[in-house]
Amino acid sequence: MGDKHFVCIIGSGNWATTIARNVGNNAARHQMLEPLVNMYVYEEYIDGRKLTDIINTTHINVKYMPDYVLPPNIIAVDDVVEAARDADILIFAIPPTFVSSCCRTLLGKVKPTAHAVSLIKGFERGDDGHIILISGIIMRQLKIPCSVLVGCNLAHEISNDNYCEGTIGCRDQKFFRVLPDIFKSDTFRVVVTDDADCVEICAALRNIIAFGAGCADGMELNENTKAGLIRRGFLEIIQFVDVFYPGSRMATFFEACGLSDLPIVIAS
Ligand SMILES: NC(=O)c1ccc[n+]([C@@H]2O[C@H](COP(=O)([O-])OP(=O)(O)OC[C@H]3O[C@@H](n4cnc5c(N)ncnc54)[C@H](O)[C@@H]3O)[C@@H](O)[C@H]2O)c1
Ligand SMILES: O=P(O)(O)OC[C@H](O)CO
C-alpha cells in the first residue's frame, strides 16, 4: 500500500458527478492518492459539443449537474477502457442496467490488483430467481474485489453541502483506511464496516418498502397503517439478511445504509 492509488470514476450522471467533487478534492490533497482522477463519461453531444470537452474546459457537467463546478483534477474520458486502465480504485456510479455491459468491455483491461467500489443501488435477478448483488456482478465479471458505498445520499442535497452520511461496506482490509478518505468531506460523514453484504442489501431492498408505503398513500390508508407497514418491511429486510446472508450484524441496519436511507426513499 506504499504507492499512490489512481482513482477512476465510472459514470457521469447525477450521483457520479456529485461525488466526483469530493473524490477530486480528496485526491488533490491525500498523500496516498494520485491527484488526477479519470471520470468515464458516456459521450453525448450538447449543442454540437462533446460533453467530455465541455467538462474538461468548463469543469461543469452541463447535462446532469449544470450548476455544479467540479475540481479541475477531474478528467472526463469518453473511453471506459482508457479511463480505467491504470486505476487502482474503480468507483462505479452508473445505473444498474449498464453494469454488465460495462464490465464486459472492461474484462481483462483493468489492473488485476484493482479494487472496485459500487455506489449503485439495486440488484439483478438471476435465472434461478435469486437476487444478484451489483457488487457481485462486478466481482464475478472483473475478478476483483468490490466494496460498496450507500447511505442517505440524495445527490442534489450533497451538492448543496447539506450534512449527510454514508456507509462503506469494505471487502478488503487493505482499503479500510483509504476508502473513507476518498469520499468524505466536512459535510459527508462516512463510516466503514466489513459487513458489506448487509450494507448493500439494505440499499437494494429499501425500495420495496418505499413502494409499499407509496401504495399505502395511493390507497388512502392512514399514517398509522403506513408506519406499521414500514416497520414490518424493515423487519423483513433484517430477516431476509439473516436467512440469506448469515453472519451479518444487527448494528449495520442502524447505520446510514439502513435506517437513514429508508425514510429518504419513502419521502422522495
Ligand atoms: N442520484 C442520486 O441521488 C443517487 C444517490 C445515491 C445513489 N444513486 C445510485 O447511483 C446510480 C446512478 O444513478 P444516477 O442518479 O447518477 O443516474 P443518472 O440517470 O443521473 O445517470 C445516468 C448515467 O448513465 C450513463 N449512461 C447512459 N447510457 C449509458 C450506456 N449505454 N452505458 C453506460 N452508461 C450510460 C449516463 O451517461 C449517466 O452517467 C443508481 O444506481 C442510483 O441508485 C443515486
Ligand atoms: O433512489 P436512488 O436509488 O437513486 O437513491 C437515492 C439516494 O441514495 C437516497 O438516499
Automatic annotation (TrEMBL):
Keyword match Oxidoreductase: yes
Domain Glycerol-3-phosphate dehydrogenase NAD-dependent N-terminal: 7-175
Listed transmembrane segments: none
The entry's keywords: NAD, Oxidoreductase
Pathway(s) it belongs to: Lipid metabolism; Phospholipid metabolism; alpha-glycerophosphate cycle
Name of the featured protein: Glycerol-3-phosphate dehydrogenase [NAD(+)]
NCBIfam families, A to Z: glycerol3P_DH
Originating organism: Drosophila lebanonensis (Fruit fly)
